[in-house]
Design a protein that fits this description.
With 499 residues, this protein is an alpha/beta fold. It is 37% helix and 25% strand.
Length: 499
């Protein structure tokens, strides 16, 4: 029921590996623009489309922006060794060669942003401050635009790009950079992306600006924005960001540096709870780091994945593990198995009562229907809930109550025209439910438009039940709860299947 977002990259971009990832349980493909150019990502995406065709498994696409990310520029790609207790200078002069004494960075306001005693982390991809591939620096003095730092741990930096993170300091850079806008308006538009992951979201205003930008780009006004919370500023404005965004990604890599380690779990639990009550997807990252190089996760990581599910997360996001990890397919399948195990002991009853209490009375019309459908399904021990929806909203509301049985969201296409041509909507809505826990979309036949009679509803239901039977969730004599609109009213009905 819990969804898996996989990041596609060097180790996971061939058609066969992507096909195996889809079969193992990946339902959203994340394309990270922090590295690689549009052509590279386009190739990956074309391979994804072929894999979707051959496996017949739907997959959504998420574009992850770079955001105000500070980077050390190592043009020669020479390995840099840093020794504990030595000093290194960070300079905005990017023409300089990176070395053990000098690291050029892509930001000229560092000296204004930091003061002696501040902490800076540098590493490839992300860093915990404990690996030998990332280094922890303390600012010792400022010389003009240069920042002199003392090295706190010996480390070896390898590769062309290292991320730089200053603990608890605001960097005066826009959340959507020009490079991000360029990527979205060319690559994003061309590929009709389903989700935009907004890196380093710090305020609700960041989300509003991104939405305004998307709304000018034709079809992308339907793209959902997931705010990535990765620093203390995003935490402080969490409630208002949650109101604006369509979902939240808890980026525990950077957060773990901005927050003391003992506070991370508390924030995670509180944030996931708030997302659950708002009925918006919560995605947790950095769960099985060790599987980047190993075939098995540590026990702590396995427990961490299970706890994320028990806390109520909708999806687990894999970054380096699938991007450059040696075992992308195994990672997805192990994480999926842990999630399934945790779901068996998830206290659905308590969660349902908590959600109903939180929503309060009087409920809105839709909320009342959604909670009633779930309650009915629990009482009659239904094997599946089938929802007919055109916007996907009704299905998401039902999933908000976390029923124990899968929710089959039958998206009924709508016909629309822009005076020049007719087109069907529905594919976007179907793919966007691929990040919601327990929600499984299928696209109905466009010959049965949304505003239809009960006769066509019957034929669509038949197709949905056949789909359920083929995927093994419905069998003879099962009970099924159906939520649909008949005329102007919403109806919840229970049917018992014959042979």
């Amino acid at each position: 029921m819990t969804k898996i977002v996989g990041t596609l990259g060097p180790k996971s971009r061939s058609v066969e590996v992507i096909s195996s990832c889809l079969k193992a349980g990946m339902s959203v493909a994340r394309i990270d623009f922090s590295w690689g150019d549009s052509d590279y990502h386009q190739e990956t995406l074309e391979n994804l489309k072929l894999a979707v065709k051959s496996t017949k498994k739907l997959c959504a696409v998420m574009l992850d922006t770079v955001g105000p990310e500070l980077q050390v520029v190592n043009k020669s790609e020479r390995t840099i060794s840093l020794e504990a207790d030595a000093f290194v200078v960070l300079t905005p002069d990017q023409d300089q060669e990176a070395s053990s004494q000098l690291l050029p960075i892509n930001f000229d306001g560092l000296a204004k942003a930091v003061k002696p005693g501040d902490t800076i982390f540098i590493g490839q991809y992300l860093f915990t401050g404990s690996e030998t591939t990332s280094v922890w620096l303390e600012v010792s003095e400022l010389k003009g635009e240069d920042v002199v730092c003392m090295i706190k741990n010996s480390a070896t930096l390898a590769g062309s790009l290292f991320t730089l993170h200053i603990s608890q300091i605001r960097v005066e850079l826009p959340t959507l950079t020009d490079a991000d806008k360029e990527a979205i308006s060319t690559w994003g538009v061309r590929n009709n992306i389903d989700f935009l992951s907004l890196s380093f979201t710090r305020h609700a205003e960041d989300v509003r600006q991104a939405r305004e930008f998307l709304s000018k780009l034709g079809d992308l006004q339907q793209t959902q924005i997931f705010a990535k919370i990765e620093n203390i500023e995003g935490l402080n404005h969490f409630d208002e960001i949650l109101q604006e965004a369509d979902g939240i990604i808890l980026s525990r890599g950077n957060l773990g540096i901005d927050l003391p380690p003992e506070k991370v779990f508390l924030f995670q639990k509180a944030a996931v709870y708030k997302c659950n009550m708002a009925g918006k997807p919560a995605v947790v990252t950095r769960v099985v780091d060790s599987m980047t190089d190993n075939l098995r996760p540590t026990r702590a990581e396995a427990t961490d994945v299970a706890n994320a599910v028990l806390d109520g997360s909708d999806a687990i996001l894999l970054g380096a593990e699938t991007l450059r990890g040696l075992y992308p397919v195994e990672t997805i399948s192990i994480v999926g198995r842990i999630c399934a195990e945790a779901e068996k002991v998830y206290n659905q009853d308590l969660y349902f009562k908590k959600t109903v209490k939180y929503v309060g009375e009087p409920m809105t019309h839709l909320e009342a229907i959604a909670s009633s459908a779930v309650r009915a399904a629990i009482k009659v021990k239904a094997s599946v809930i089938i929802v007919f929806t055109s916007s996907g909203r009704a299905a998401r509301l039902i999933a908000k109550y976390r029923p124990m049985m899968p929710v089959l969201s039958v998206v009924i296409p709508r016909l629309k025209t822009n005076q020049l041509r007719w087109s069907f909507t529905g594919a976007f809505e179907a793919r966007q439910s691929l990040i919601v826990r327990g929600l499984f979309p299928m696209l109905a036949d466009p010959r049965h438009p949304a505003e239809s009679t009960s006769a066509t509803n019957e034929s669509v239901l038949k197709v949905a039940l056949e789909h359920g039977k083929a995927s093994g969730i419905v069998k003879s004599h099962d009970r099924v709860v159906i939520c649909q609109k008949v005329g102007d009213s919403s109806v919840v009905k229970i049917i018992e299947l014959e042979d």
